[in-house]
């Protein structure tokens, strides 16, 4: 019997995609993360919530190689992420969106999405200038991949317009598409519905569910919209002052007295997901 085979009566569980264990991060005597531990399973939407300054963005910056923690381990599959540069981590398959839109406003939707394919250009400058052979075949394959994202995120009507002319909610969708264009194995969503109206929020929620359910892509999401988090997340970690205070299902988190008092309000009631 191999290590992956189950004994009678046992159930197997796939290995976590991400292990974030006992991470400590500080700056000039200020502790941003203090013993933060969590795992993300294959196909899971894992949410991180907490007040401003709780350490949510610091977690993303550790995962993407912007910050190097003083203690702890961060493993993405079999790869140790601590000490790796951001571009190396991106090549391993971790993509990130940002709270503030980071697009090239003068470029079209298609051009912005093509920028997400930069990891899939295995040729040099001369080949690109000549646009022959391998460069031509690769460029056409990348354009085909981008068109699939255009269809998936329903961006066809804006595909040739500069993103600076588009509504805010559509711009956020384009940024999501650029992250998907890199063909990630793990997606980090930093406040994906920040600043959106109700209709835009509902559209983004639908696309996030499609990413999880149709693409099977695991995600870590930081978000302040508690309604969205409770509706979408499989599990939630609540942090405060850099410390995790509760991790569990939406129902477990929403009914925890400390979480209710600190983040959700005494009158909050859990609505069961269908």
Automatic annotation (TrEMBL):
PROSITE patterns: ABC_TRANSPORTER_2. Residues 18-266 form the ABC transporter domain. One of its GO terms (molecular function) is ATP binding. Pfam families: ABC_tran, BCA_ABC_TP_C. Transmembrane segments: none annotated. Signal peptide: none annotated. SUPFAM superfamilies: P-loop containing nucleoside triphosphate hydrolases. InterPro entries: AAA+_ATPase, ABC_AA/LPS_Transport, ABC_transporter-like_ATP-bd, BCA_ABC_TP_C, P-loop_NTPase. Keywords: ATP-binding, Nucleotide-binding, Transport. GO terms for cellular component: plasma membrane. CDD domains: ABC_Mj1267_LivG_branched. This is ABC transporter ATP-binding protein.
